[in-house]
Amino acid sequence: MLFDKVNSDISLTPELREKKLTEITDYLDSRLAGVSSFRSGSRSAQPEKFHGRTADHGQVAKNWWYGVELYFTAEPTHNPVAKAVTYLHDDARYWWQQSGSQAIPSNPTFADFKQVFLSRYVKPSDSAAARAEIIHLKQTGSVEAFATEFRNINSRITVGTPIDTTTLAGYFFSGLKKKVSNALTTHESLQTIHSLALLIPAAEEMEAKHWQC
Length: 213
Hints:
mainly alpha
């Protein structure tokens, strides 16, 4: 349970542990408020929809996340990420489709989803700086390392409209080493070059075939 996880986390200071326990308790109280009856053995209440509006940032997002964790603790599933994202709606769904899903591995763990969600809706952001950084980011090591740094910077863009995938692909392509981008231009289609989801693996494969960075 979440209480056990918090109590057993030795990295937390007493003050932070108490704060987290209070937040969990407040969330549970908010979910129980208004519930008039409980039938023993009934299934856990599903998480509420999360819309990602400005008013949903901060504590509201944190409460929603606690609800998701409680639900999947009580109702385990083999793919909790795929299930959790079905509760994202409106702005939150757009964020997930445009950038959130691209900021984590293709087969993400629940911890991966938690990190990118909290970075987007709970933790303080430096969106303006991230938008500037991603435009000028350049590959200095491997394509894989460049892609990881690129995704991390993109995940910090939490204010305003997410950058669309075609524009992101353009930023990524322009940041590649010249020999890699030239090879992609010669051997790959425009469809691949204009899609970040296709471009990153194509660049990694091209580098693996021809160069040792």
